[in-house]
């Protein structure tokens, strides 16, 4: 059984409004002005060379209080604003009908993923989900991808794997794990590199990769 691994934010889920609202609310509470544009925020988040704290909160010393406040606001805004991109549920349904295993590797906190996916009504499609925690470093570290592949290989001796993401971090993680990468150009990574423009194009690319001789 072949395996597709998805990133979450910017690939399956449009969380740009939740992220933007959270950052600008915390900036306001820290007396930082003006509000930052969503495109700028997404660009910084997807750039592995950037330091988020310095970019979003210049002159502010990171603290546990700031991180805790950010997490509380982000959970609230995520539940309020996050939606799946158009065509995603159809893509997941088609993959299941093709008897393809589906996994999730996200830099979001591991403990939050099940609740998010259930709220968005796509949890049932996933065979394995894993997110950031003490044992699983954030991408571009390949640990999450490697763990998923190892888990899948317990019951599948021969299979192909492809990882679908939207950022330089995702591409680097895929390279580090030595698996095929497909770039989603419909989300946060639009125009960042060559890829597919719609979930339907992604489906065609996935099937071509799996079933080509």
CATH class of the largest domain: Alpha Beta
* Beta-strand content estimate: 5-15%
State mean pLDDT (0 to 100 scale): 95
Q: Could you please say which CATH topology of the largest domain applies here?
A: Rossmann fold
- Would you list the SSEs in sequence order as H and E? EEHHHHEHEHEHEHEH
What's the main sheet like?
5 strands, parallel
Q: Strands of the largest sheet, in order across it?
A: 5-4-1-6-7
Protein structure class: alpha/beta
Organism: Campylobacter ureolyticus ACS-301-V-Sch3b
GO molecular function, one term: phosphoglycolate phosphatase activity
Pfam families: HAD_2
Family: Belongs to the HAD-like hydrolase superfamily. CbbY/CbbZ/Gph/YieH family.
Topology:
Elements: E1 3-6, E2 13-14, H1 16-29, H2 38-45, H3 52-56, H4 64-81, E3 83-84, H5 88-97, E4 101-109, H6 113-119, E5 128-132, H7 143-153, E6 161-165, H8 168-177, E7 180-183, H9 199-211
Parallel strand pairs: 1-4, 1-6, 4-5, 6-7
Antiparallel strand pairs: 2-3
Describe it.
It catalyses: 2-phosphoglycolate + H2O = glycolate + phosphate. The chain is α/β, with parallel strands linked by helices. It has 2 domains: 3-14 and 83-211, 3-Layer(aba) Sandwich (Rossmann fold), CATH 3.40.50.1000; 15-81. The chain is 45% helix and 15% strand. The protein has helices at residues 16-29, 38-45, 52-56, 64-81, 88-97, 113-119, 143-153, 168-177, 199-211; strands spanning 3-6, 13-14, 83-84, 101-109, 128-132, 161-165, 180-183. Strands 5-4-1-6-7 form a 5-stranded parallel sheet, sandwiched between helices. α8 (168-177) links the parallel β6 and β7 (180-183). α1 (16-29) runs antiparallel to α4. The mean pLDDT is 95.
């Amino acid at each position: 059984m072949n395996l597709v691994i998805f990133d979450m934010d910017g690939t399956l889920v449009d969380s740009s409004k939740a992220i933007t609202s959270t950052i600008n609310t915390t900036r306001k509470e820290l007396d930082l002005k003006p509000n930052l544009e969503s495109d700028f925020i997404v660009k910084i988040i997807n750039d592995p060379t950037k330091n988020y704290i310095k970019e979003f909160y210049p002159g502010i010393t990171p603290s546990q209080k700031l991180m805790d406040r950010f997490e509380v606001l982000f959970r609230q805004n995520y539940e309020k604003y996050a939606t799946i991109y158009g065509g995603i549920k159809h893509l997941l349904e088609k993959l299941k009908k093709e008897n393809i295993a589906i996994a999730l590797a996200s830099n979001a906190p591991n403990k939050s993923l099940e609740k998010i996916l259930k709220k968005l009504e796509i949890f049932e499609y996933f065979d394995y989900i894993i997110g950031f925690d003490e044992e699983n470093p954030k991408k571009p570290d390949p640990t999450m991808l490697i763990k998923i592949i190892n888990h899948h290989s317990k019951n599948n001796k021969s299979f192909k794997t492809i990882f679908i993401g939207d950022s330089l971090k995702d591409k680097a993680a895929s390279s580090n794990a030595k698996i095929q990468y497909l770039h989603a150009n419909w989300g946060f990574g639009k125009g960042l590199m060559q890829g597919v423009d719609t979930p339907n194009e992604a489906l065609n690319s996935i099937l071509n990769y799996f079933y080509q001789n």
